[in-house]
Amino acid sequence: MTVPRAFPLVPTSIHVPDEVLDDLRARLALTRPPVDEGNEDWSYGVPAACLRELVAYWRDGYDWRKAEAAINAHEHYQVSVDGVPVHFMRKPGRGPRPVPLILTHGWPWTFWHWSRVIGPLADPAAFGGDPADAFDVIVPSLPGFGFPGPLTGFPDVNFWKVADLWHTLMTETLGYEKYAAGGCDIGGIVSSQLGHKYADELYGIHIGSGLPLDFFTGPRAWDFARNRPLGDDQPADIRARVIEQDHRWASHLAVHMLDGATLAHGLSDSPAGLLAWLLERWNGWSDNGGDLESVFTRDDLLTHATIFWVNNSIATSMRYYANANRYPWTPAHDRTPVVQAPVGLTFVTYENPPGIHTAEERVRAFKTGPQADWFNHVNVNAHDHGGHFIPWENPDAWVSDLRRTFQGRRP
Protein backbone atom coordinates (compact mmCIF):
# COMPACT_ATOMS: atom_id res chain seq x y z
CA MET A 1 0.00 0.00 0.00
CA THR A 2 1.31 3.44 -0.93
CA VAL A 3 1.91 6.00 1.82
CA PRO A 4 -0.87 8.62 1.67
CA ARG A 5 0.27 12.16 1.00
CA ALA A 6 -0.10 14.75 3.73
CA PHE A 7 -3.40 16.58 3.64
CA PRO A 8 -2.76 20.32 3.17
CA LEU A 9 -5.28 21.66 5.72
CA VAL A 10 -5.70 21.49 9.50
CA PRO A 11 -9.03 20.06 10.79
CA THR A 12 -11.51 22.37 12.54
CA SER A 13 -14.24 20.73 14.59
CA ILE A 14 -17.88 21.77 14.37
CA HIS A 15 -19.08 23.67 17.44
CA VAL A 16 -22.33 25.61 17.85
CA PRO A 17 -22.13 28.20 20.66
CA ASP A 18 -24.33 27.64 23.71
CA GLU A 19 -26.03 31.00 23.24
CA VAL A 20 -27.22 29.99 19.77
CA LEU A 21 -28.80 26.82 21.17
CA ASP A 22 -30.33 28.78 24.07
CA ASP A 23 -31.90 31.20 21.61
CA LEU A 24 -33.28 28.28 19.60
CA ARG A 25 -34.97 26.79 22.67
CA ALA A 26 -36.40 30.17 23.67
CA ARG A 27 -37.93 30.65 20.22
CA LEU A 28 -39.35 27.14 20.23
CA ALA A 29 -41.00 27.82 23.60
CA LEU A 30 -42.78 30.86 22.11
CA THR A 31 -44.14 29.05 19.04
CA ARG A 32 -47.69 30.04 18.13
CA PRO A 33 -49.32 27.28 16.06
CA PRO A 34 -51.84 28.06 13.32
CA VAL A 35 -55.48 27.00 13.27
CA ASP A 36 -55.34 23.71 11.36
CA GLU A 37 -58.66 21.87 11.49
CA GLY A 38 -59.31 18.89 9.25
CA ASN A 39 -55.66 18.30 8.34
CA GLU A 40 -54.84 15.07 10.13
CA ASP A 41 -54.06 13.38 6.79
CA TRP A 42 -51.45 15.99 5.67
CA SER A 43 -53.69 16.96 2.74
CA TYR A 44 -53.24 20.67 3.48
CA GLY A 45 -49.57 20.36 4.44
CA VAL A 46 -47.82 19.56 7.71
CA PRO A 47 -50.42 19.01 10.47
CA ALA A 48 -50.15 21.29 13.50
CA ALA A 49 -50.42 18.33 15.88
CA CYS A 50 -47.50 16.56 14.23
CA LEU A 51 -45.34 19.64 14.27
CA ARG A 52 -46.27 20.50 17.87
CA GLU A 53 -44.92 17.18 19.08
CA LEU A 54 -41.67 17.53 17.15
CA VAL A 55 -41.20 21.15 18.29
CA ALA A 56 -41.61 20.07 21.91
CA TYR A 57 -39.00 17.38 21.47
CA TRP A 58 -36.63 19.82 19.74
CA ARG A 59 -37.01 22.16 22.70
CA ASP A 60 -36.80 19.70 25.61
CA GLY A 61 -35.51 16.32 24.43
CA TYR A 62 -33.23 16.60 21.41
CA ASP A 63 -29.50 16.63 22.17
CA TRP A 64 -27.53 18.61 19.61
CA ARG A 65 -24.28 17.99 21.48
CA LYS A 66 -24.71 14.25 20.94
CA ALA A 67 -25.26 14.83 17.23
CA GLU A 68 -22.34 17.22 17.12
CA ALA A 69 -20.06 14.59 18.65
CA ALA A 70 -21.13 12.06 16.00
CA ILE A 71 -20.47 14.62 13.26
CA ASN A 72 -17.07 15.43 14.75
CA ALA A 73 -16.06 11.78 14.60
CA HIS A 74 -15.10 12.75 11.05
CA GLU A 75 -12.55 15.31 9.95
CA HIS A 76 -13.92 18.79 9.22
CA TYR A 77 -12.25 21.67 7.46
CA GLN A 78 -13.01 25.30 6.74
CA VAL A 79 -11.28 27.16 3.94
CA SER A 80 -11.81 30.17 1.70
CA VAL A 81 -12.15 29.29 -1.98
CA ASP A 82 -12.07 32.31 -4.28
CA GLY A 83 -13.27 34.38 -1.33
CA VAL A 84 -16.18 32.06 -0.48
CA PRO A 85 -16.08 30.31 2.92
CA VAL A 86 -16.38 26.55 2.44
CA HIS A 87 -16.88 23.78 4.99
CA PHE A 88 -16.28 20.15 4.13
CA MET A 89 -16.14 16.80 5.88
CA ARG A 90 -13.47 14.30 4.91
CA LYS A 91 -12.81 10.61 5.37
CA PRO A 92 -9.40 9.54 4.05
CA GLY A 93 -9.36 6.56 1.76
CA ARG A 94 -7.83 3.30 2.98
CA GLY A 95 -6.56 1.36 -0.01
CA PRO A 96 -3.65 1.14 -2.44
CA ARG A 97 -4.69 4.14 -4.57
CA PRO A 98 -7.75 5.97 -3.22
CA VAL A 99 -9.44 8.15 -5.82
CA PRO A 100 -10.40 11.66 -4.65
CA LEU A 101 -14.21 11.91 -4.66
CA ILE A 102 -16.28 15.03 -3.95
CA LEU A 103 -19.93 14.37 -3.01
CA THR A 104 -22.41 17.24 -3.29
CA HIS A 105 -25.80 17.27 -1.59
CA GLY A 106 -29.07 18.87 -2.65
CA TRP A 107 -32.06 20.63 -1.09
CA PRO A 108 -33.32 20.17 1.60
CA TRP A 109 -30.23 18.14 2.38
CA THR A 110 -27.22 18.86 4.52
CA PHE A 111 -23.73 17.41 4.17
CA TRP A 112 -24.77 14.87 6.87
CA HIS A 113 -27.10 13.10 4.44
CA TRP A 114 -23.92 11.52 3.02
CA SER A 115 -22.92 10.07 6.39
CA ARG A 116 -24.17 6.56 5.59
CA VAL A 117 -22.01 6.08 2.51
CA ILE A 118 -18.69 7.71 3.32
CA GLY A 119 -17.43 4.79 5.43
CA PRO A 120 -17.96 2.10 2.76
CA LEU A 121 -16.60 4.41 0.06
CA ALA A 122 -13.47 5.42 1.98
CA ASP A 123 -12.70 2.09 3.67
CA PRO A 124 -14.38 -0.68 1.68
CA ALA A 125 -12.40 -3.45 3.39
CA ALA A 126 -13.99 -2.55 6.73
CA PHE A 127 -17.39 -3.24 5.15
CA GLY A 128 -16.49 -6.47 3.38
CA GLY A 129 -15.34 -4.84 0.16
CA ASP A 130 -12.17 -4.60 -1.88
CA PRO A 131 -9.64 -1.98 -0.67
CA ALA A 132 -8.83 -1.31 -4.32
CA ASP A 133 -12.23 0.44 -4.50
CA ALA A 134 -11.31 3.07 -1.89
CA PHE A 135 -12.02 6.77 -2.34
CA ASP A 136 -10.64 9.77 -0.49
CA VAL A 137 -14.07 11.23 0.31
CA ILE A 138 -14.67 14.99 0.43
CA VAL A 139 -18.19 16.08 1.47
CA PRO A 140 -18.70 19.86 1.34
CA SER A 141 -21.67 21.87 2.49
CA LEU A 142 -23.09 23.79 -0.44
CA PRO A 143 -22.28 27.45 0.33
CA GLY A 144 -25.27 28.90 2.14
CA PHE A 145 -26.61 25.51 3.30
CA GLY A 146 -24.93 25.25 6.67
CA PHE A 147 -21.46 25.52 8.08
CA PRO A 148 -19.22 27.48 8.28
CA GLY A 149 -22.03 29.97 8.92
CA PRO A 150 -24.33 32.46 7.19
CA LEU A 151 -23.23 33.07 3.60
CA THR A 152 -22.63 36.70 2.62
CA GLY A 153 -20.88 38.24 -0.35
CA PHE A 154 -22.20 35.64 -2.80
CA PRO A 155 -25.77 36.78 -3.61
CA ASP A 156 -25.66 35.21 -7.09
CA VAL A 157 -24.79 31.72 -5.83
CA ASN A 158 -26.02 28.90 -8.07
CA PHE A 159 -25.06 25.41 -9.18
CA TRP A 160 -22.66 26.19 -12.01
CA LYS A 161 -20.79 28.80 -9.98
CA VAL A 162 -20.38 26.26 -7.19
CA ALA A 163 -18.98 23.78 -9.73
CA ASP A 164 -16.19 26.27 -10.43
CA LEU A 165 -15.56 26.59 -6.67
CA TRP A 166 -15.43 22.80 -6.27
CA HIS A 167 -12.93 22.47 -9.11
CA THR A 168 -10.71 25.09 -7.51
CA LEU A 169 -11.10 23.37 -4.13
CA MET A 170 -10.14 19.95 -5.46
CA THR A 171 -7.29 20.99 -7.77
CA GLU A 172 -5.72 24.16 -6.34
CA THR A 173 -6.62 24.04 -2.64
CA LEU A 174 -6.31 20.28 -2.08
CA GLY A 175 -3.86 19.57 -4.86
CA TYR A 176 -5.56 16.66 -6.61
CA GLU A 177 -4.52 16.33 -10.25
CA LYS A 178 -7.66 14.36 -11.13
CA TYR A 179 -10.77 13.49 -9.16
CA ALA A 180 -14.26 12.00 -9.26
CA ALA A 181 -17.57 13.67 -8.39
CA GLY A 182 -20.98 12.52 -7.25
CA GLY A 183 -24.21 14.18 -6.25
CA CYS A 184 -27.98 14.22 -6.09
CA ASP A 185 -30.55 16.95 -6.72
CA ILE A 186 -28.65 20.27 -6.89
CA GLY A 187 -25.51 18.24 -6.25
CA GLY A 188 -26.33 16.20 -9.34
CA ILE A 189 -26.26 19.21 -11.64
CA VAL A 190 -23.17 20.60 -9.87
CA SER A 191 -21.49 17.27 -10.67
CA SER A 192 -22.83 17.31 -14.24
CA GLN A 193 -21.36 20.77 -14.74
CA LEU A 194 -18.01 19.47 -13.50
CA GLY A 195 -18.29 16.60 -15.98
CA HIS A 196 -19.15 19.10 -18.72
CA LYS A 197 -16.64 21.89 -18.12
CA TYR A 198 -13.77 19.95 -16.57
CA ALA A 199 -14.17 16.50 -18.15
CA ASP A 200 -10.45 16.02 -18.81
CA GLU A 201 -9.67 16.49 -15.11
CA LEU A 202 -12.29 14.03 -13.84
CA TYR A 203 -12.31 10.26 -13.70
CA GLY A 204 -16.07 10.55 -14.07
CA ILE A 205 -19.22 11.45 -12.17
CA HIS A 206 -22.04 9.52 -10.52
CA ILE A 207 -25.39 11.24 -10.07
CA GLY A 208 -28.82 10.51 -8.65
CA SER A 209 -30.86 12.08 -11.43
CA GLY A 210 -30.52 12.85 -15.09
CA LEU A 211 -31.51 16.51 -15.06
CA PRO A 212 -30.19 18.42 -18.06
CA LEU A 213 -27.97 21.37 -17.24
CA ASP A 214 -30.51 23.80 -18.73
CA PHE A 215 -33.30 22.54 -16.46
CA PHE A 216 -33.71 25.96 -14.82
CA THR A 217 -33.48 27.96 -18.05
CA GLY A 218 -36.46 29.79 -19.53
CA PRO A 219 -39.34 32.05 -18.53
CA ARG A 220 -41.43 29.27 -16.91
CA ALA A 221 -38.69 27.18 -15.35
CA TRP A 222 -40.64 27.26 -12.09
CA ASP A 223 -43.48 25.25 -13.69
CA PHE A 224 -42.78 21.67 -12.64
CA ALA A 225 -45.41 20.39 -15.10
CA ARG A 226 -43.32 21.83 -17.96
CA ASN A 227 -46.54 22.56 -19.87
CA ARG A 228 -47.42 18.87 -19.67
CA PRO A 229 -51.11 18.53 -20.57
CA LEU A 230 -53.56 17.01 -18.14
CA GLY A 231 -56.36 15.71 -20.29
CA ASP A 232 -59.39 13.53 -19.66
CA ASP A 233 -58.20 11.17 -22.40
CA GLN A 234 -55.04 10.18 -20.51
CA PRO A 235 -54.83 6.74 -18.93
CA ALA A 236 -55.92 6.92 -15.31
CA ASP A 237 -52.55 5.87 -13.90
CA ILE A 238 -50.65 8.50 -15.89
CA ARG A 239 -53.09 11.23 -14.93
CA ALA A 240 -52.87 10.24 -11.27
CA ARG A 241 -49.07 10.21 -11.38
CA VAL A 242 -48.91 13.66 -12.98
CA ILE A 243 -51.16 15.06 -10.25
CA GLU A 244 -49.20 13.27 -7.52
CA GLN A 245 -45.87 14.64 -8.72
CA ASP A 246 -47.26 18.14 -9.12
CA HIS A 247 -48.45 18.00 -5.50
CA ARG A 248 -45.05 16.78 -4.41
CA TRP A 249 -42.86 19.26 -6.27
CA ALA A 250 -44.77 22.21 -7.73
CA SER A 251 -45.06 24.49 -4.69
CA HIS A 252 -41.46 23.91 -3.73
CA LEU A 253 -40.09 24.77 -7.16
CA ALA A 254 -42.39 27.74 -7.77
CA VAL A 255 -41.93 29.37 -4.37
CA HIS A 256 -38.16 28.95 -4.29
CA MET A 257 -37.79 30.43 -7.76
CA LEU A 258 -40.37 33.21 -7.50
CA ASP A 259 -40.76 34.18 -3.85
CA GLY A 260 -38.02 32.61 -1.76
CA ALA A 261 -36.91 35.81 -0.03
CA THR A 262 -40.46 36.52 1.16
CA LEU A 263 -40.82 33.06 2.65
CA ALA A 264 -37.38 33.29 4.25
CA HIS A 265 -38.44 36.18 6.49
CA GLY A 266 -40.72 33.80 8.35
CA LEU A 267 -38.48 30.73 8.23
CA SER A 268 -35.39 32.60 9.44
CA ASP A 269 -37.33 33.98 12.42
CA SER A 270 -39.30 30.91 13.46
CA PRO A 271 -37.58 27.54 13.93
CA ALA A 272 -41.01 25.90 13.98
CA GLY A 273 -41.80 27.44 10.60
CA LEU A 274 -38.44 26.34 9.24
CA LEU A 275 -39.01 22.82 10.50
CA ALA A 276 -42.46 22.66 8.89
CA TRP A 277 -41.13 23.70 5.47
CA LEU A 278 -38.33 21.14 5.63
CA LEU A 279 -40.52 18.43 7.14
CA GLU A 280 -43.05 18.53 4.32
CA ARG A 281 -40.28 17.74 1.83
CA TRP A 282 -38.58 15.10 3.96
CA ASN A 283 -41.95 13.39 4.33
CA GLY A 284 -43.23 13.78 0.77
CA TRP A 285 -39.96 13.08 -1.00
CA SER A 286 -38.75 10.05 0.95
CA ASP A 287 -39.91 6.51 0.26
CA ASN A 288 -41.35 6.01 3.74
CA GLY A 289 -44.62 4.17 3.09
CA GLY A 290 -46.49 6.57 5.35
CA ASP A 291 -44.05 6.17 8.25
CA LEU A 292 -41.52 9.00 8.13
CA GLU A 293 -39.57 7.60 11.07
CA SER A 294 -38.80 4.48 9.03
CA VAL A 295 -36.44 6.76 7.07
CA PHE A 296 -35.62 9.59 9.48
CA THR A 297 -35.78 9.25 13.25
CA ARG A 298 -36.83 12.31 15.20
CA ASP A 299 -33.19 12.91 16.04
CA ASP A 300 -32.20 12.61 12.37
CA LEU A 301 -34.81 15.18 11.35
CA LEU A 302 -33.75 17.61 14.03
CA THR A 303 -30.05 17.24 13.33
CA HIS A 304 -30.60 18.33 9.75
CA ALA A 305 -33.01 21.08 10.83
CA THR A 306 -30.57 22.35 13.45
CA ILE A 307 -27.81 22.61 10.84
CA PHE A 308 -30.09 24.86 8.79
CA TRP A 309 -31.19 26.88 11.81
CA VAL A 310 -27.90 27.61 13.58
CA ASN A 311 -26.33 28.81 10.32
CA ASN A 312 -29.35 30.93 9.27
CA SER A 313 -29.10 29.26 5.89
CA ILE A 314 -32.65 28.82 4.65
CA ALA A 315 -32.70 32.00 2.55
CA THR A 316 -29.38 31.33 0.82
CA SER A 317 -30.22 27.67 0.27
CA MET A 318 -33.41 28.64 -1.56
CA ARG A 319 -31.55 31.27 -3.57
CA TYR A 320 -29.97 28.54 -5.73
CA TYR A 321 -33.25 28.06 -7.60
CA ALA A 322 -33.86 31.66 -8.60
CA ASN A 323 -30.19 32.20 -9.45
CA ALA A 324 -30.05 29.15 -11.71
CA ASN A 325 -32.69 30.96 -13.77
CA ARG A 326 -31.48 34.54 -13.31
CA TYR A 327 -27.91 33.55 -14.25
CA PRO A 328 -28.68 30.75 -16.70
CA TRP A 329 -26.29 27.98 -17.56
CA THR A 330 -24.36 28.42 -20.78
CA PRO A 331 -22.23 25.70 -22.40
CA ALA A 332 -18.47 25.72 -21.97
CA HIS A 333 -18.12 23.89 -25.31
CA ASP A 334 -20.28 22.59 -28.15
CA ARG A 335 -19.14 18.97 -28.11
CA THR A 336 -21.57 16.11 -27.65
CA PRO A 337 -22.57 14.62 -25.39
CA VAL A 338 -22.71 17.76 -23.27
CA VAL A 339 -21.36 15.95 -20.20
CA GLN A 340 -18.34 14.23 -21.69
CA ALA A 341 -16.89 12.72 -18.52
CA PRO A 342 -18.06 9.13 -17.93
CA VAL A 343 -21.42 9.25 -16.13
CA GLY A 344 -23.10 6.74 -13.85
CA LEU A 345 -26.69 7.19 -12.73
CA THR A 346 -28.77 5.80 -9.88
CA PHE A 347 -32.54 6.10 -10.18
CA VAL A 348 -35.25 5.05 -7.72
CA THR A 349 -38.74 4.05 -8.73
CA TYR A 350 -40.29 6.36 -6.11
CA GLU A 351 -39.41 9.18 -8.49
CA ASN A 352 -40.43 7.41 -11.70
CA PRO A 353 -42.01 9.67 -14.32
CA PRO A 354 -45.66 9.04 -15.30
CA GLY A 355 -46.16 5.78 -17.15
CA ILE A 356 -42.99 4.15 -15.78
CA HIS A 357 -43.55 1.53 -13.10
CA THR A 358 -40.53 -0.75 -12.69
CA ALA A 359 -36.78 -0.34 -12.32
CA GLU A 360 -36.20 -1.98 -15.69
CA GLU A 361 -38.64 0.41 -17.37
CA ARG A 362 -36.90 3.36 -15.72
CA VAL A 363 -33.51 2.38 -17.12
CA ARG A 364 -34.98 1.75 -20.56
CA ALA A 365 -36.91 5.04 -20.54
CA PHE A 366 -33.76 6.99 -19.74
CA LYS A 367 -31.59 5.27 -22.33
CA THR A 368 -34.17 5.79 -25.09
CA GLY A 369 -35.25 9.27 -24.02
CA PRO A 370 -33.90 12.73 -24.81
CA GLN A 371 -32.06 13.18 -21.49
CA ALA A 372 -29.65 10.36 -22.27
CA ASP A 373 -28.18 12.42 -25.11
CA TRP A 374 -26.82 14.88 -22.55
CA PHE A 375 -24.56 12.31 -20.92
CA ASN A 376 -21.68 10.00 -21.71
CA HIS A 377 -23.51 7.41 -19.63
CA VAL A 378 -21.60 4.24 -18.85
CA ASN A 379 -23.60 2.78 -15.97
CA VAL A 380 -27.36 3.27 -15.49
CA ASN A 381 -29.19 1.60 -12.61
CA ALA A 382 -32.61 1.83 -10.97
CA HIS A 383 -33.81 0.48 -7.64
CA ASP A 384 -37.20 -0.25 -6.14
CA HIS A 385 -36.25 1.06 -2.69
CA GLY A 386 -35.43 4.66 -1.84
CA GLY A 387 -36.67 8.15 -2.48
CA HIS A 388 -35.13 11.54 -3.12
CA PHE A 389 -32.41 11.10 -0.49
CA ILE A 390 -30.82 8.06 -2.13
CA PRO A 391 -27.52 7.75 -0.22
CA TRP A 392 -29.42 8.10 3.06
CA GLU A 393 -32.37 5.87 2.15
CA ASN A 394 -30.56 3.17 0.16
CA PRO A 395 -26.84 3.58 0.88
CA ASP A 396 -25.91 0.08 -0.29
CA ALA A 397 -27.33 0.74 -3.75
CA TRP A 398 -25.58 4.10 -4.02
CA VAL A 399 -22.21 2.68 -2.99
CA SER A 400 -22.50 -0.33 -5.30
CA ASP A 401 -23.59 1.76 -8.29
CA LEU A 402 -20.90 4.38 -7.75
CA ARG A 403 -18.16 1.78 -7.46
CA ARG A 404 -19.31 0.21 -10.71
CA THR A 405 -19.15 3.57 -12.48
CA PHE A 406 -15.45 3.89 -11.66
CA GLN A 407 -14.38 0.32 -12.23
CA GLY A 408 -11.64 0.37 -14.84
CA ARG A 409 -11.41 4.16 -14.64
CA ARG A 410 -8.97 4.45 -11.76
CA PRO A 411 -5.32 5.43 -12.09
TrEMBL record:
UniProt keywords, alphabetically: Aromatic hydrocarbons catabolism, Hydrolase
Annotated ranges, domain Epoxide hydrolase N-terminal: 11-113
Active site as annotated: D185 (nucleophile), Y321 (proton donor), H388 (proton acceptor)
GO molecular function annotation: epoxide hydrolase activity
SUPFAM superfamilies: alpha/beta-Hydrolases
GO biological process per UniProt: epoxide metabolic process
Source organism superkingdom: Bacteria
Pfam families recorded: EHN
Family assignment from sequence similarity: Belongs to the peptidase S33 family.
UniProt name for this protein: Alpha/beta fold hydrolase
